[in-house]
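Progress against Task 2.4 (sequence-to-structure conversion) is shown through the following example record, which the project officer requested during the mid-term review.
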Amino acid sequence: MAYTGIKFTCHQISPSFSYQDDLAQLNRSAWILSQLGLAPLHDNGAYGNFSCRGEKEPEFFISKSGMTPVEEFTPEQFCHITACDEEKMSLDYHGLAVPSSETFMHHLIYQNRTDIGSILHGHCDIMTRLAEELGLPITPQFLEYGTEALARAGLELAESEDFFILKDHGFISLGEDINIAARQTFSILHQLLSLLESS
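Structure tokens generated for the chain above:
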């Protein structure tokens, strides 16, 4: 499905924000995933979104809509989310660009998994197709990106799983911190490569 932008209402509070040190680390993880083909490019950026929890609840930082991961960290690639209204599907943010289309899924997971400090969402077609062989949990059905339905389907699996597949869409990796979420993704990728090598 072609990417057409966000599907919720967002209110820009300011074009800039104070960011925490680990945002540079999040940027590096996003860049590494892109170099491994786990955040493929499209006409308006790259598929995938990456976030980390803020110091105050319910705040978090997330990549902007259509982010193209690059090695050199620039704060303009991210947004600071300070409030989310689940009923109205609206949010308040600080930053130059609108936040990622899956911001509400990240919000729901942070609200319901207080042990999670970072969420990495990427795309790998072959991992998605071989999810059952890899023993990965999968959401029951395909749901359009950026919708409340997809966000809640992701939350349902996130309540008991730290790595899972959004059916015919992509993967979600949850970690206590950014490094744990990234290492978990690399581990699954290694399992995928081993499966392909043995087939």
